[in-house]
């Protein structure tokens, strides 16, 4: 399948370990057949009271073959598993590298639990592709051919029986398993992904479920999905057991056939009786090597299904350029930003989020973007950061098209504070050093003081997603991260919406001091303090309705003036009550 191309490439990267594991498996298989054949021959020879040196030679040969089989089997396991783990590492890295450029588009389309199931479960299941799909047929064919040639030197009829048995174990038994597998194809993985998705949903929302008294319903849903998964796993396990049982039946049937045919050939004088036990033991051993063929279709379909799900996750990457742009943005000087006829619409939405937006932000200018929720302000920031791609129009930085700029270079030149900022489990110091790792503790404490967080320590614990931080603390730590960066473009999306007026003024004063001479875009709902902005852009329903300085907009008494009057009335009304 085309979905397994990535697996083949990963296998080529580990070809040395793969070849060593195949060599070890071949030696182990042949040594196993030779060991049991020699044991059968030695047992038969003891009946005829052979010379002592014959028994010594046979006993030594059995011990040597046993040691060789154990050592080569160990080497086979070592190299095959090392190759598999290295391939999984390559696959995870490759998948994650393809996933990152698609964010947040993929994150908006896929539920977080489903993505987690794909990144962890589907990649993990691909380990079976080499160990249980690609590797066993190679070993089985080589060991069987060697055994058949060995057997044919004693009896061509028994060798033909071996061929019939191998065709049954390599084709008929897997075919029976495949027919049963079609009934449950992909169901286990789908059920597991659904369970992972719902568990993640319940864990994220357990607080709201508790508050609204819906936790019992959530638990019942999880139990129902878990029971469905257990039922599918039982069916899949039953199908595997059926294949293994049929294989064991065929193995013993062939062994009985070798015994019966060998007896007939001995009576006919075509075979010496001393070789019968040897051939029976050889049949038991060689078909033991073929046991993996019975379950091969199951693991093959499982690997294909997992690879297909991973491919579906990053299929949009095919539309991206095969090579990242090499253009870079200088971080030594503030950049100008120009949008020309930019239009963007979210997938599934009936109206565009932005409609033919044309704006120019000169280098070193300070611009505020205001408007009601849903007017497209945050989408504008996402487009400038190349987190999303406009459907029409062009965005240029320093007169260079965004399509020609490397994303990493673009993010390095920007000091960004978004509405939702992620905080990792660790300390305050760990979360501040995301910006750069060479800051001293004194510098970090100075920045914390600027954002009015002098009371906290750098060693204070931050829980996952900042659960132990208030919204105001989260915003100030995010601002501290931005203050620690060296970019000359500031993109701030509601950076102080959770702060009180006094704290907001103190924090923004320090920010404006550091951003003096830089290009700054500030998205906000509060209209207080915008007098110091060079320009204010007013947006509504994805369009620009007004633009100008604070004084100019107030003089026009248009949309911005009405918004300001409403804010004054709300603040005044709140003060009276």
From TrEMBL:
Q: What is its main location?
A: membrane
Output the GO biological process annotations, alphabetical, semicolon-separated.
cell redox homeostasis; glutathione transmembrane transport
Q: Where in the cell is it found?
A: Cell membrane
Q: Which residues belong to any copy of the ABC transporter domain?
A: 337-566
**InterPro entries on file:** AAA+_ATPase, ABC1_TM_dom, ABC1_TM_sf, ABC_CydC/D, ABC_transporter-like_ATP-bd, P-loop_NTPase, Type_1_exporter
Keyword DNA-binding attributed: no
Listed under GO cellular component are: plasma membrane
Which keywords describe this protein according to UniProt?
ATP-binding, Cell membrane, Membrane, Nucleotide-binding, Transmembrane, Transmembrane helix, Transport
Transmembrane annotation, as ranges: 18-42, 48-68, 129-150, 156-180, 245-267, 273-299
Q: Which Pfam families match?
A: ABC_membrane (PF00664), ABC_tran (PF00005)
Domain named ABC transmembrane type-1 is located at 19-288
Which Gene Ontology terms cover its molecular function? ABC-type transporter activity; ATP binding; ATP hydrolysis activity; ATPase-coupled lipid transmembrane transporter activity
Extract the Gene3D superfamilies matched here: ABC transporter type 1, transmembrane domain, P-loop containing nucleotide triphosphate hydrolases
The annotated topology with respect to the bilayer is:
Multi-pass membrane protein
Identify the NCBIfam families for this entry.
CydC
Which protein, by its recorded name, is this? Thiol reductant ABC exporter subunit CydC
Organism, as annotated: Paenibacillus xylanilyticus
């Amino acid at each position: 399948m085309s979905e397994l191309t990535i697996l083949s490439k990963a296998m080529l990267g580990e070809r040395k370990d793969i070849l060593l594991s195949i060599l070890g498996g071949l030696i182990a298989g042949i040594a196993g057949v030779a060991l049991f054949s020699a044991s059968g021959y030695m047992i038969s020879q003891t009946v005829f009271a052979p010379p002592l040196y014959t028994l010594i030679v046979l006993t030594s040969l059995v011990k040597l073959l046993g040691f060789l089989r154990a050592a080569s089997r160990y080497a086979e396991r070592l190299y095959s598993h090392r190759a598999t783990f290295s391939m999984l590492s390559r696959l995870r890295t490759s998948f994650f590298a393809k996933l990152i450029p698609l964010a947040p588009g993929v994150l908006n389309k896929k539920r977080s639990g489903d993505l987690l199931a794909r990144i962890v479960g589907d990649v993990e299941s691909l380990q079976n592709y080499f160990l249980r799909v690609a590797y066993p047929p190679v070993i089985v064919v080589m060991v069987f051919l060697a055994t058949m040639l060995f057997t044919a030197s004693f009896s061509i009829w028994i060798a033909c029986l071996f061929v019939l048995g191998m065709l049954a174990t390599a084709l008929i038994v897997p075919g029976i398993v495949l027919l049963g597998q079609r009934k449950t194809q992909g169901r286990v993985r789908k059920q597991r992904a659904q369970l992972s998705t719902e568990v993640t949903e319940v864990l994220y929302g357990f607080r709201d479920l508790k508050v609204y008294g819906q936790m019992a319903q959530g638990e019942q849903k999880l139990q129902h999905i878990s029971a469905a998964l257990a039922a599918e796993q039982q069916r899949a396990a039953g199908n595997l057991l059926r294949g293994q049982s049929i294989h064991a039946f065929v193995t013993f049937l062939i062994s009985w056939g070798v015994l019966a045919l060998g007896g007939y050939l001995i009576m006919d004088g075509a075979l010496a009786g001393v070789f019968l036990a040897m051939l029976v033991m050889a049949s038991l051993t060689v078909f033991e090597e073929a046991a993996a063929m019975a379950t091969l279709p199951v693991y093959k379909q499982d690997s294909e299904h997992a690879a297909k799900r991973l491919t579906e996750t990053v299929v949009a990457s095919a539309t991206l350029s095969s090579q990242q742009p090499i253009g870079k943005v200088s971080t030594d000087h503030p950049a100008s930003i120009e949008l020309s006829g930019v239009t963007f619409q979210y997938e599934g939405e009936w109206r565009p989020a932005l409609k033919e937006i044309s704006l120019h932000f000169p280098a070193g200018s300070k611009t505020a973007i205001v408007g009601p929720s849903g007017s497209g302000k945050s989408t504008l920031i996402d487009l400038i950061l190349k987190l999303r791609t406009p459907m029409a129009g062009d965005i240029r930085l320093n007169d260079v098209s965004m399509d020609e700029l490397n994303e990493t270079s673009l993010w390095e030149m920007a000091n960004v504070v978004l509405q939702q900022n992620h905080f990792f489990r660790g300390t305050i110091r760990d979360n501040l050093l995301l910006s750069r790792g060479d800051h001293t503790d004194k510098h970090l404490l100075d920045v914390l003081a600027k954002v009015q967080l002098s009371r906290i320590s750098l060693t204070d614990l931050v829980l996952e997603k900042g659960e132990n931080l208030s919204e105001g603390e989260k915003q100030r730590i995010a601002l501290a991260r931005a203050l620690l960066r060296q970019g000359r473009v500031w993109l701030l999306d509601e950076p102080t919406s959770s702060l009180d007026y006094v704290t907001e003024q103190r924090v923004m004063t320090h920010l404006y001091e550091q951003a003096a001479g830089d290009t700054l875009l500030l998205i906000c709902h509060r209209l207080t303090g915008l007098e110091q902005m060079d320009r204010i852009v007013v947006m509504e329903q994805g369009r620009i309705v007004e633009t100008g300085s604070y004084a100019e907009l107030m003089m026009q008494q248009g949309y911005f003036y009405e918004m300001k009057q409403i804010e004054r009335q709300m603040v005044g009304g709140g003060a009276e009550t």
